[in-house]
Amino acid sequence: MNRLPCEIIVRGILPALRAMIARKLVKKYGFTQAYVAGLLGVTQATISHYLADKRGKLVKGLCEPEELELIANEVASRIARGDLGPGELKKEICKICSEFKKKLGLI
């Protein structure tokens, strides 16, 4: 079955990216799970699962974990500094997804 490019990213990379961002915001910067959930557009329970490594696994072969970690660190840092609000975050995530689609030759 051929999946759409966005579906590949949404299932294979985006949950891992959100999990990495959530972990940084909660553990390093002290944000609450509820706040991070609202920011990322998920439930507080999802954030709890990310923190417990029950969700948000990267699908192997799509990208290197270290590469995604660098991106997540930068995004979390910008959020913590106040440089990236909820509206800007959505645009940033879309930009990141587009870059991965190009990199993977999906578009």
Features of the shown structure:
single chain; 107 residues; mainly alpha; 0% strand; globular
- Annotation field: number of helices: 6
Note the beta-strand portion: under 5%
Morphology call:
globular
- Low-pLDDT parts are none
Any idea what the radius of gyration is? 13 Å
The biggest beta sheet reads: none
* Strand elements, count: 0
Going by helix content, strand content and strand pairing, the class is: mainly alpha
Please explain how this structure is put together.
There is one protein chain. The protein is mainly alpha-helical and 107 residues long. Helix content is 69%, strand content 0%. The protein is globular and about 40 Å long. The model has no long low-confidence stretch (mean pLDDT 94).
Describe, in short, the structure shown.
With 107 residues, the protein is an all-alpha fold.
Q: In terms of topology, how is this protein built?
A:
Layout: H1 5-12, H2 14-28, H3 33-40, H4 44-51, H5 65-81, H6 86-103
Helix pairs in contact: 1-6, 2-3, 2-5, 3-4
